Amino acid sequence: MFAVIKTGGKQYRVAANDVITVATIEGEAGSAINFGEVLLFTDGDAIQVGAPLLEGVTVSGEIVDHGRAKKVIAFKKRRRQNSRRKRGHRQHFTTVRITEIGFGGKSTKAEPRKAKASSSEGDAPAVVSPASA
């Protein structure tokens, strides 16, 4: 089951428990968010396509954190003129985890994240150095 949502002028294909990076959204880390602009929805059997949006489909998520992307350098130069301009820009973004996709009575909730099992000393693979080989 997945859906296509629109936020920040871009479209994203999302499923339950996906983590996506979108343009900045207001809200604190850990707060819930609902995406109202759903363009497409499928439950594996049937595909629902909006014209342009679907009614009755809800995509819910949780804000994980806010951040800034790597710096993009805008450099302009006019040859033989000793004229150049260099500017940098860092775009703000929000990371969102999709928690639920619902349509009518059906909904797909994200399963709770499993903690990784800690490995013991006996489970670690043997390390072979080039000198001993």
Automatic annotation (TrEMBL):
The keyword rRNA-binding applies. GO terms for cellular component: ribosome. Residues 100-133 are annotated as: Disordered. This protein binds to 23S rRNA in the presence of protein L20. Belongs to the bacterial ribosomal protein bL21 family. NCBIfam families: L21. This is Large ribosomal subunit protein bL21. The gene is rplU.
